[in-house]
Amino acid sequence: MRQGGGVAARAPVLQIRPLERGDIAAITHWARQEGFAPGSGDVAIYRHTDRQGIWVGWLGSERVGCIAGVRYSSAYGFLGLYLVQPQWRGRGYGLQLWRHALEHLADLPCIGLEAALGAFAAGLILSRSRHTEAIQETVKPLVALFATVFFVLIGTGMDLSVLNPLDPANREGLVVAAFLLAVAVVGKLAAGWSYWSAEPTRRLVVGLGMLPRGEVGLIFLGLGSQAGILTPALEAAILLMVIGTTFLAPVLLRLVLAGKSDGPDLDPLAEVPT
How much is the pLDDT for 15? Predict the structure, then answer.
């Protein structure tokens, strides 16, 4: 194709090759630059486990990125060591490496971590990246959409009839709910009182501020229900605990903050650790 009387330059073609010994130092250096350092020992373990399970992407004589897709057995594989040099990001080379690793593990029934834990681990890694703020801004629309859909699906899967105290079959769940609610409240209050600071602090406010179990509790409730490992009684107990802590926290905080303090007039929000 011609543009302006000349021949348009073609984009460089990425060559994906198995890891060689001379690549290990460069990969380890990349990892340290990004804030996580697997070390040459970990790379050596991956290579020993699956000699064809680590690849390096090349553009001519320059290394662009790397990825590991290690086959530990006929049933399990691991994806990791996914790095692309900053100057080559956003051009599709990282996606090519990712697809190459997935193709290597395509016949395995299990790859990497369970979805929730894998996503959490990815967040921990990305939190130490220099690109954290850019990543957060990019995914905000996705979070707003899919988080809402997720909680709607959890709500549609709940059977509120198990909360009826007049049904003898529901009493077991209600007793468990009372126990969970008590443990949730006492546990958070104890955590708040254990907070130590050289500055005057309303420890009761700290504990009450941590009381709500909303989103996380609903996530585990939804996953447990989908997996079929929760009985209706236990589902009701967890749901009541989540609802109870969510509604109790603002009421108790208002009562505590409206009362007299033994110390100076403090801004409680300024004292809550984040």
Answer: 93
